[in-house]
Amino acid sequence: MALWDRLKQSAQTMQNQLDAKKHELKSGGFRDASMAMCALVAAADGSVDPSERQRVAALIATNPVLQNFEAADLHRRFDDYLTTVTADFELGKVTLLQVIGKVAKKPVEARAVIQIGIVIGGADGDFDKTEQAIVREACFALAISPDEFDL
């Protein structure tokens, strides 16, 4: 199976798992951690071009699990987190990993945040090494083994 096909299949599997747990993913902590993850993945290479911002914003708006929350609120949080991480990448990354870490004691939410990172990272067909590294760091912030997600 080609890398592209494996990536699409993995992202679809993650999305299916998220959909199955949608009713459990309604807390403010999950909302914030998810948007922090989206911002980190979008800025993983140190910058975010307008098309990448648009693509991630569109994915946020259409993701069934994130429809538990008001779209405008999600976009505002995503934009705020992007501003944080692009103003000073290293400091912003630490700040957003702390936001993500707040759901560590809720295993369903913690794993869902990682799955959202993988879905967002793989959405363009190229879950690159920098995106994988960011998601791996989030795993550590959540006390989850990256091996659980083949990272």
The tally of helices reads: 7
Low confidence ranges: none
Average pLDDT, to the nearest integer?
A: 84
CA radius of gyration: 14 Å
Percent of residues in β-strands: under 5%
Biggest pleated-sheet summary:
none
State the total count of DSSP E strands: 0
Shape: globular
Structural class: mainly alpha
Helical percent range? 55-70%
Short description:
With 151 residues, the protein is mainly α. Helix content is 70%, strand content 0%.
How is the secondary structure organized here?
Layout: H1 3-20, H2 28-42, H3 50-62, H4 71-87, H5 89-101, H6 107-122, H7 129-141
Helix pairs in contact: 1-6, 2-4, 2-5, 2-6, 2-7, 4-5, 6-7
Polypeptide structure, described:
The protein has 151 residues and is mainly alpha-helical. It is 70% helix and 0% strand. The chain is built from seven helices and no strands. The chain has helices at 3-20, 28-42, 50-62, 71-87, 89-101, 107-122, 129-141. Helix 4 crosses helix 5 (89-101). 40% of the residues are buried.
Labels describing this entry:
151 residues, mainly alpha, 7 helices
